[in-house]
């Protein structure tokens, strides 16, 4: 394999690893911050839901 292909393979692996980290952080945020806000403070929950929707739009590039 050429060095270029090796570098591209490493970049792909690193990108996938970062996506997994992002997915875990999103899961933690929804299960923790958003759920807690929904239970305890409806006004704060609206903020958290808006923040979540914005984050998903950016992640999905909508």
Automatic annotation (TrEMBL):
Name by which UniProt lists this protein: Metal-sensitive transcriptional repressor
Keyword DNA repair applies: no
Presence of the UniProt keyword Transmembrane helix in the record: no
UniProt similarity note: Belongs to the CsoR family.
Sorted UniProt keywords: Copper
Molecular function terms, GO-annotated: DNA binding; metal ion binding
Matches recorded under Pfam families: Trns_repr_metal
Domain of life according to the entry: Bacteria
GO process terms (BP): negative regulation of DNA-templated transcription
